[in-house]
Amino acid sequence: MKIFNDPIHGHIELHLLLVKMIDTPQFQRLRHIKQLGSKYLVYPGATHTRFEHSIGVAYLARCLVESLQENQPELNITEEDSLCVQIAALCHDMGHGPFSHLFDGMFIPEVRPGKWKHEEASVEMFKHMIEKNNLKKAMKESGLNPDEDIIFIGQLIRKEPRETVLKFKVFSIFQRSAEKAFLYEIVANKVNGIDVDKWDYLARDCYYLGIPNGFDHQRLLKSARVCKVNGEKQICFRDKVADNVYGMFHTRYTLHRQALQHKIGYIIDVKITEVLKEADDMLKISDALFDMEKYTNLTDHIFDQILNHSSPKLKEAQKILEGITNRHLPKFIGEARLNEDTLKVTSHKQSKLYEWFVRVYYKKTDQDVQQRAKECFQQWCEEVNFTDSGTFSNHIFDKILKMADKRQLKFIGEAQLKEDKIKEELKEKIVNECNEKRTSGSSALDDKDFDIYILDMGFGEVGKEPIENVHFYNKYNRDTAFKIEKNQVSSLKPKKFHEWLIRVYYKKTYQNDERIEQHQKEVQQIAEESFQNWCKESDFVDSSGVSDIFAGEGTSSSSRVVAAPATDKNADKETLSGKIFNDPIHGHIELHPLLVKIIDTPQFQRLRHIKQLGGTYLVYPGATHTRFEHSLG
Q1: Annotated catalytic residue 586
Q2: What is the pLDDT of residues 399-414, one digit of tens each?
Q3: DSSP assignment, residue 444?
């Protein structure tokens, strides 16, 4: 065993086989891939990496397995099983590319459309690591069977669906029985989303972001127990921790709402994606997906590699990066929550599609009325620009008819809403009003001056109650699993667990020219007013609720449907120009506008790349903090 000192879990003991894997170049590359991608450019403390997260997940996996072994010896979890689960936990993120989920969620779908996922790359990188470092011998010495266990570990990393595991009832290739299918729920739980990966990143991300964490993973870990659910063994939890399960999913939502989908962080992700696309032809970034040797060298360092490259072909990419470094970013116009009653979600067996549908049902049985309603609906679809009935599939149509019959409703019709049409209408309104009302500037604005994005976020799987697939047991019958309804936990729990947001950005950035800056600020203010009016008039915006809008980078939220703090006429000028930073040590730090201008220079921004403790991070995994956040403090 080797002991690591971790800021989240304290002293972590890891098996020597895991230590040998950690000491390979393939795993060490995770030191150079930030856990939250570009969010360190918004939250100064978010410097932690996939390296220490992976170590934390491996530790929690061992803790959970040992708890099950101690409390339920009848499960016959062997040391071989335990070690395989720990290795899978350690290596589950080895396939992440630069800036983590930005790479596989935004960049790769643009340049390599398909079904590539970082989990697949993790399996390939794991196999590459084993071969490159001759670790099969070490695996045998630790009691593993490399030929079988490498495949088993790969399935654990790949988030193998439980249905696949149980299909043939026996793992003949692994020489493990289906009785141990619950092992697949420890690292990446496809049944209900409760796993050690989530436990670590919730605690770690909150710590480094400076966001309070109300979720205690230890309560779930110590109460975990394997029970039979529909004849199959599944990890369940004590009934009294049901509220803690809600806390876990709520903490996840808070992280996404305040940090991962932060309005400035999101647009930085968009710009970095543009940079990677610009540089892909020359640097062959996406080609590395199919060559693990090249992929080993692909990390967050690509940012500086592009920025400092001498080729004129990368001038456009370098211009965007310089804009990010100097904080010349598109200006946030506003945000609104879309109406969930208008926007629907459907799913196919193979892949989930986030589609917006408007559906009409007739509650009575009059066939004449039903026929006239169908004709009226079809006519509405032809007249309204927001519908695209051509994309409607027979598969979904049949499914809806069955649903309607069960509910004793007569199905009238359905049309898919066109996301592009909604964006086009909003852009046209904003551009027209800006051109009509502005008093400065020479050239007219067009739709290229604005960008509109639609995001989704929630507690977990879209449209799902967080504990819908979670089973519990009680102290009187520890082997009988049952579900708990939301109202049994508390009547104060939310009714909705997912939301869609529409965001608008003005792409022009302020220059060192007072006249140009004045013009752009005027346009921004007009655009904000136009967006507010559109929100009031549009059927697709949920005007009944309020959307949490962040008044500054890494700050707490304010309750407004749209946000325009930067152009509030009645606000103090210094407050407008200044900035509040969210710091994990000091909380909310408010700095003078002059300091903010100094911070936004390349000379100060370089401190983001200078570790506060130098090479100490090679010994203490959590010592990733830099001179940048230290100087702010």
Answers
A1: no
A2: 444 444 444 455 555 5
A3: P
